[in-house]
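Hi Y.,

Following your request, here is the sequence exactly as I used it, all 136 residues.
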Amino acid sequence: MGSKSKCAQIARATSLYERVYSVVARIPSGRVATYGQIAAIVGNCSARVIGYALAATPDDRSIPWQRVINSRGEVSIRQDGAASGRQRDLLEAEGVRFDAKGRVDFSVAAWDGPDWHWLQENGFHVAPPAGFERRK
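Below is the corresponding structure, written out as tokens. Let me know if you'd prefer a different format.
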């Protein structure tokens, strides 16, 4: 692969990650979203890409990455195989409660997503709230 195409890939990823960060920054304290929910709002990416973006969040950015959890309502296992106690601690400090199985009750803590005016103005997609597929 040539350096121009590599640069283009990096530019696309940077732009995509910035879109992810702008959505995640809107999640209020005490609420959670899922990787899939954020992917649906951003569009043209998967839940896994959202995880990659959040893992790459620059240290100097104030992005509430801890508010994004998996579709089971759990803190996801990290690459090293361990669950992130730090993420759970941060969420609990915001008032998010976990049950005995380590899951968040989406009917209590789910974020409904940005309002549609913001979505439309910023070129994002409407997506169901966190845990929607589990509430049916």
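The radius of gyration is 15 Å.

Thanks again,
Q.
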